[in-house]
Write a structure and sequence with these properties.
By secondary structure, the chain is α/β, with parallel strands linked by helices. It contains 11 helices and 14 strands. The strands form 3 sheets. A 7-stranded mixed β-sheet has the order 1-2-3-4-5-6-7. A 5-stranded mixed β-sheet has the order 8-9-10-11-12, with no helix packed on it. A hairpin with a 2-residue loop joins strand 1 and strand 2.
């Protein structure tokens, strides 16, 4: 359950039951007057038991524990309020704190569904998905005064370990990676995963999610990373994985263009169903509902990217928007 990564740095594996991600890698950094935990897991008994056991094995004390969440998703923030000390800090970028607060207050779902409906996502399917979506079902109930903005470029000192927040906007509007310049260690969050490809969805109010993600991938490729520690699954070759991810999205974009060229006038839901997905399902009809929701959001981010660069165009005069070659 607990593995030593480097001096004063440990990994705790937190299971994510019935989820294709399988587990979350939570990282513990031992300091002098305080300790730091990076990411927590879903708000589930299984996650809480595993994280509690790992922290107990390390001799961690809650009254000296700060938490840093790499981004707002509930598999990273679902238990931050349960494990942070009463007078400690819960760090996250200010941008993701605001997005998470808006989400928990119900301010984002109406805007999202307004666009999803215009893009062809069936309303009946969303109503079936909403109660099962982990982003809402397994999240914290509300923010509290411990939430503290820590934005890209800002640093944090934990004992003799210096951490720096790195812009990784894309996977969420305010996602971050955490750089340890002295150890040349990068906590990659979900920005760079090695066994699976991060989901890049269209966020309401963000013009070009995929463009942000790809641009930030190229920027973080300039860091001299020796050890990359992802939030899920296993680590790997940092710089090679960045090249693979850039190539992956290049192929995906070409596939979307080909689908639209072959059959102009499809809506986004119809395009999503024709894309290639790595999932254990015979066809689109057998996709689990929640995975259809994630796939649709990813398709939208690719459509936005292509449309903003003049490769395709969208007919927005009809109730359901449709896509055509430019």
């Amino acid at each position: 359950m607990v593995k030593r990564i480097a001096d004063k740095i440990y990994r705790i594996r937190v299971p994510l039951p019935k989820n294709p991600l399988k587990w979350l890698n939570s990282y513990f950094i031992r300091g002098n007057d305080r300790d730091l935990l990076i990411d927590t897991g879903f708000r589930l008994p299984e996650c809480r038991e595993a994280l509690s056991a790992g922290l107990a094995e390390l001799g961690a004390k809650q009254d000296r524990l700060d938490i840093l969440a790499t981004h707002l998703h509930s598999d990273h923030t679902g238990m931050v309020d349960l494990f942070a000390g009463e007078n400690r800090h819960i760090y996250m970028t200010g941008r993701d704190i605001q997005w998470l607060d808006n989400f928990l207050r119900g301010k984002t779902s109406k805007r999202r569904m307004s666009r999803y409906t215009r893009e062809g996502f069936p309303l009946w399917l969303n109503e079936r998905i909403e109660p099962k979506n982990p982003s809402s079902a397994l999240s914290i109930p509300q923010l509290d005064s411990r939430f503290t903005p820590l934005d890209p470029g800002q640093t944090l000192q934990v004992g003799d370990i210096r951490l720096k927040m790195v812009n990784a906007y894309g996977h969420t509007p305010g996602a971050a990676m955490v750089w340890l310049p002295d150890q040349k260690i990068m906590f990659t969050g979900d920005h760079i995963l090695f066994d699976i490809t991060p989901n890049i969805t269209a966020w309401g109010g963000v013009t070009d999610t995929l463009g942000d993600y790809l641009n930030n991938l190229r920027i973080v490729d300039t860091y001299d990373v020796k050890t990359a520690l992802p939030a899920h699954r296993n680590p790997g070759d940092y710089h090679r994985r960045i090249r693979e991810l850039l190539q992956h999205h290049k192929v995906r974009l070409a596939e979307v263009v080909q689908i639209i060229n072959d059959k102009p006038g499809l809506n986004a839901f119809e395009i999503t169903a024709r894309m290639t997905w790595s999932i254990r399902a015979k066809d689109w009809n057998e996709f689990p509902d929640v995975q259809k929701w994630f796939a649709f959001g990813e398709c939208l981010s690719h459509l936005d990217y292509l449309r903003l660069r003049g490769v395709i165009k969208r007919n927005g005069t009809q109730p359901i928007q449709r896509y055509f070659p430019a």
